[in-house]
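Lab notebook, bench 4. Still working through the backlog of constructs that have no structural model yet. Next entry is a single chain of 65 residues. Request: give me the C-alpha cells for it.
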Amino acid sequence: MNPVDKRYLNCREAATFLNMSKKWSDKERAAGRGPRALRFGHAVRYDIEELVRFAESRAEGPIAA
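Model written out:
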C-alpha cells in the first residue's frame, strides 16, 4: 500500500513524507520539536494532515515558481 493512501504513518513513513531521515524524526520527537505524534500502545504514528501543517508552518517565504 502506498503510504499516501493511509491516514496514519509510522516514523519511517512520516520522515520520508517530509523528505527527512528517520534519525531526524526520532531526534525531533524526543526534543519536542517535531510534528505532533500519536501513540497507540508502543506504536508511534503521525496523522498526514498534521505532517502537512507542520511542514507549512516552517515555510520561510514565497515559493519561487
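Notes after review: The chain is about 40% helix and 15% strand. Residues 3-57 form one domain. Flag for follow-up if needed.
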